[in-house]
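step 3/5: co-fold with adenosine-5'-triphosphate
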Amino acid sequence: MSEKVLRLDGVWKSFGDHDVLRGIDLAVAPGEVVAVIGASGSGKSTLLRTVNLLEPIDDGRIWLGDADISDPRVDVDEVRARIGVVFQQYNLFPHLTVQRNITLALRHVHRMRRDEADAAASALLQRVGLADKAGAHPDRLSGGQQQRVAIARAVATSPELLLLDEVTSALDPELVGEVLDLVHELADEGMTIVMATHEMAFARDVADRVVFLDEGRVLEQGPPSEVFGAPREERTRAFLARFSA
Ligand SMILES: Nc1ncnc2c1ncn2[C@@H]1O[C@H](COP(=O)(O)OP(=O)(O)OP(=O)(O)O)[C@@H](O)[C@H]1O
Ligand SMILES: [Mg+2]
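step 4/5: write C-alpha cells
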C-alpha cells in the first residue's frame, strides 16, 4: 500500500554513455504540487518522460499509486490514461477542432458516448474561458489559448497526476499569466502536479515543494521558502542567482 500518487526509487537513465538521471528518489503525495527546477540539460524533461513511459529507465522503480509502472509488462495505455501531460508546445491535434481535441481523449480513454463527451468538453471549455473557440482549429488560437485547451484536455479524463513540462516557455510574455492562472486553479482544487518550470516566481507561489535537479541528481529540495529563500547548496545558489540577475 502506498499513500503516494507517484514514487521514484533510484531511477537511472542513460543515453549512450551519458547518465542523464543518476538515482532519482522522489515521492509525491496526493494534492501535492512539485516544481522541478534546474539548468538546461539537468534532466527535467527526461524525468517527466520516464514517468509517462516515453523513456524506458535503466535502473530503479517508478510507482503510480500501487502499480509498478517500470515493470516492462505494464500496460502502457492504461498507465498513460491515468496521467495528464502537457508539453511546451504542439500539444493539440492541428486537424481537429478544439472541441474534438478534448472529446477524442474522453471517448477513447473513458469510452464516453459522443453526447456525453461533447457535454463534458463544453463544460471544460467554459471553465477555461474558451467556450467560444469550441469549433475553431488550434491555429486560430493564441499560444496561451492553445495551452489552456491542452491543459483542459489533459485534465478532462480526471488523471491522478498531471505532468507539465515548461508549459509557458514557448509563449509570448503577455500570454504566460493566463496559463499560470489556470495551473494555479487546478492546484487549488487539489490536482497532484509535477511540473518542470523556469518560472521561479510561479514555482514559489504555487508549489508545495521545489526540487532542484543538478546533472541528473536531486541536489536539494524543500518548501519554496527554503529552496528559494535559503538554499543550502552552493550550486542551487548559483543557479538561482542567474534568475534574479
Ligand atoms: N533522446 C535523447 N537522446 C540522447 N540524449 C538525450 C535525449 N533526450 C535527452 N537527452 C539528453 O539528456 C540531457 C537532459 O535532457 P533534458 O531534456 O531532460 O533536460 P532538461 O532539464 O529538460 O533541459 P531544458 O531546461 O533545456 O528543457 C541533455 O543532455 C540531453 O541532450
Ligand atoms: Mg526540458
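step 5/5: annotate
The beta strands are 6-15, 18-28, 33-37, 59-64, 67-68, 83-86, 161-165, 193-196, 209-214, 217-222.
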